């Protein structure tokens, strides 16, 4: 009996070493979605070629308690780790590269899942990739399609986009489940990437560093192996957008000037209607909540960074002077709640 258990553990260890891909699942209090995703892996054969690891951000949650008590009902092929605190998304993404031992890594949200045929698509793609590909960005119909190309950075990619597609293109880059990363290209630049964790897109920075320093490439693929769920979680998109802009525009050490310019170009596009919506949503979040922040100071800071935001601020300032409850009801309905509004 003891030797059989040893052989089982030994075979499992060997199978993990031979697998080309790790799938890292960051989760926080979504047991139903997590269970659906694990069933999806089992049905599609994802577990046959990928090492699956759950990263739980809720150390006091029911899953962590069950695992600690030996009652966790996880499949044998799934590993589990629990963070000692609720890490930010950016830190959790980068932590995946520290724990991964396979050549490739995907970070899959617990409310997403794989489409039929995804296992073969991903395996065939990995087998065909050139050695200089640092990361692959899969396509998605969630925010329109992306141009198919191999790029030496985001500058080349942005040049292929129409300005009217900048907002959707940026949202596409933020879809963490749609990225396939080569871990050897990432590890040398992990420490500097932590400097930009507050941008919410820290998963991009090591690949961009590899493009600049190692002449690596990004591949934008036509494949769509991932289906995206609609999250019912509420989190402040206004604050997130502000953090992205301030981090990219003000901090250094994690991104070069050309890729920084490309990201800010996508974030601070010239669509005046969307920019007015940004002004109103920033005012709603920072002006009507007791956060200890001066919303007008934030507006001025953003206006100094972006001429488009300055134009929108000048057009909308009479409305910004009014309390949110005095804004027209139709406008408030259009803007939505700051925790559930559309991506920007």
Provide structural commentary:
InterPro entries: Glyco_trans_2-like, Nucleotide-diphossugar_trans. It comes from Prochlorococcus marinus (strain MIT 9303). It holds the Pfam family Glycos_transf_2. This is Glycosyltransferase 2-like domain-containing protein. The protein is an alpha/beta fold and 344 residues long. The protein has two domains: 2-228, Alpha-Beta Complex (Spore Coat Polysaccharide Biosynthesis Protein SpsA, Chain A); 237-335, no CATH class. The chain has helices at 2-18, 31-44, 62-68, 89-99, 118-128, 154-159, 166-173, 183-186, 190-193, 205-214, 237-250, 257-267, 272-287, 295-305, 307-320, 329-335, and strands at 21-27, 50-56, 78-82, 104-107, 112-114, 133-137, 149-151, 179-182, 217-220, 226-228. The strands form two sheets. It has an eight-stranded mixed sheet with strand order 3-2-1-4-8-6-9-7, sandwiched between helices. Strands 5-10 form a two-stranded antiparallel sheet. Strand 2, helix 3 and strand 3 (78-82) form a beta-alpha-beta unit. The protein starts with a helix and ends in a 9-residue tail after the last helix.
């Amino acid at each position: 009996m003891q030797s059989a258990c040893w052989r089982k553990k030994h075979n499992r260890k060997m199978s993990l070493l031979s697998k080309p891909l790790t799938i890292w699942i960051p989760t926080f209090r979504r047991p139903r979605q997590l269970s659906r995703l694990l069933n999806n892996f089992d049905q599609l054969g994802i577990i046959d070629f990928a090492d699956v690891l759950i990263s739980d951000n809720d150390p006091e949650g029911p899953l962590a308690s069950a695992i600690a008590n030996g009652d966790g009902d996880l499949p044998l092929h799934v590993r589990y780790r629990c963070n000692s605190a609720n890490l930010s998304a950016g830190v959790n993404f980068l932590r995946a590269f520290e724990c991964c031992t396979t050549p490739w890594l995907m970070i899959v949200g617990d409310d997403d899942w794989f489409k039929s045929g995804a296992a073969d698509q991903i395996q065939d793609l990995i087998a065909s990739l050139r050695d200089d590909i640092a990361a692959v960005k899969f396509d998605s119909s969630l925010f329109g399609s992306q141009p198919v190309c191999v790029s030496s950075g985001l500058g080349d990619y942005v040049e292929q986009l129409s300005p009217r597609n900048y907002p959707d293109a940026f949202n596409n880059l933020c879809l963490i489940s749609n990225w396939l990363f080569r871990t050897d290209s990432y590890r040398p630049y992990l420490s500097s990437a932590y400097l930009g964790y507050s941008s919410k897109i820290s998963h991009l920075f090591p690949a961009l560093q590899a493009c600049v320093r190692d002449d690596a490439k990004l591949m934008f693929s036509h494949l769509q192996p991932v289906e995206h769920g609609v999250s019912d979680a509420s989190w402040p998109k206004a604050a997130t957008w502000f953090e992205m802009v301030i981090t990219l525009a003000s901090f250094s050490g994690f991104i070069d000037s050309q890729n920084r310019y490309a990201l800010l170009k996508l974030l601070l596009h010239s669509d005046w209607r969307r920019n007015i919506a940004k002004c109103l949503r920033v005012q709603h979040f920072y002006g009507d909540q007791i956060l200890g922040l001066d919303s007008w100071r934030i507006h001025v800071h953003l206006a100094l960074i972006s001429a488009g935001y300055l134009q929108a601020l000048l057009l909308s300032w009479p409305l910004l002077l009014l309390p949110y409850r005095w804004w027209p009801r139709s406008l408030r309905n259009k803007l939505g709640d700051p925790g559930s509004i559309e991506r920007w």
